[in-house]
Amino acid sequence: MNAAVAEKEYDSGSSFDGSAQQPQIFERPTGLKGIYYHPVTQVTMLGLVCFMCPGLFNALNGLGGGGQVDPVTSANANTAVYSTFAAGAFFAGSINNRLGSRLTLLLGSTGYALYVGSFLAMNIHPNAGPFVIAAGAVLGLCAGLLWTAQGSLMLAYPTETQKGKFIGIFWAIFNLGAVVGACVSLGQNFHSTANSVGNGTYIGFLVLTLIGVTIPMIMVDPNRMIRTDGTKVSTPRHPSWKVELYGLWLTLRTDPLIVLLFPMFFASNWFTTWQFNDYNDALFNIRARSLNNLVYWLAQIVGSISIGLLLDQRHIRRRTRAFSGWVILMAMVFAVHTWAYFYQKGYTRESIPPDAPKMDISDKGYAAKIWLYIFCGLLDAMWQTTAYWLMGAMSNDPAKLAHFTGFYKSIQSAGAAGVWRADGVKLPYMNIFLSTWILLAAGLVFALPMMYLRIRDHTELQDEVLARMDDSGHVSSVPGNAEDESNNNNS
Predict the structure, then answer these.
(1) What pTM does this model have?
(2) Is the dihedral of CA 42, 47, 48, 53 positive or negative?
(3) Residue-wise pLDDT tens digits, 43-54
């Protein structure tokens, strides 16, 4: 394939008239088929998969301790989840590009049903803790597949000026899963002052999760997707495993600045351990935890949509939007954690054991504490949405985005595994809290030079090495780009 052909076939998904590439324009289907094949419809269905699966997983974790009296089993299960997640997700981009996103999504969703079922089993058989931990290990491998496929599709279907909007739509629907799960839990436990949930909550979660497993079967093949501007979504060619692993290496070699986002990725799930187990579970009874859980995930919907709209403002340059998002995140990190510090210094693990009486929704001081939890939810959604948007600003190619999201979920999960283990061995609450604050600030500091050096107003063909790589691993050159010749000589 020569450079002229490569340039013709590259679909940037850019809506700007001044784009350096002029991609081929295709006619979009009309009528009901046009609605079903619309990128927003498909991202909505993608959101529904995550609504039913990781959304309900988040609702379960958001109860603190997975809804159990003793959070140790949940903490150890989460350690298993994120350990295998970290190991599997790094290579999940290659698996996604080999098997295709729909099959990868289907395989990934199955682990969530197993995990929810394991908590039901533990409620019936109290000695089933090892089964919960084993289910967590299986879920970690599945989650790496699901999230890599999700990230690849979510960032490939929109045009360059729609990525924040699509991320916001996905994140809102995904978090509706946690909202529904929280509503189920709140309804089941509203008249309870106990510290754990009943079987009905787990059964409701399990049924919804099993429905989510079926959705990838009816999604449109990405090969047949056309963006709203008429450009065709370029999909991975499913080459040999050898070429796919070479593509993984080539992604890191040709876009090394992605490494500066790794600290941001590492911190992106670290904070949930303190929020879920060391704040919500530590201070509140099951009724208050259920209500806290509900408003937390509602706040996530608001946070993702609001930051997504900012990051997609067409009249503002993309670089300016990137730096604006960075400033907002840094302000939120310090505002939320300064506020939280004044609560955290007032209690320890020793002062509030798991079986101690906990705060109820009618108790004095509850209103201020639930507002802090709302702002924690806003920060979480803004952080994740911005991380995805930054990756989407670096590429439009689903194959490369699959590797990026694989890196993201792998590094994220490595951090989560570490902090859940720290919570499982009962590290002091204050230690976990301070580490959360420091890692979030450090993640933003490391991301700043990447944004300055790498984020441009448009994604150019020379950035898309994998889009120009054929099934043998040969990269077609772009006129005037000497690096391509070096890549081919090294392959």
Answers:
(1) 0.76
(2) positive
(3) 999 999 999 999
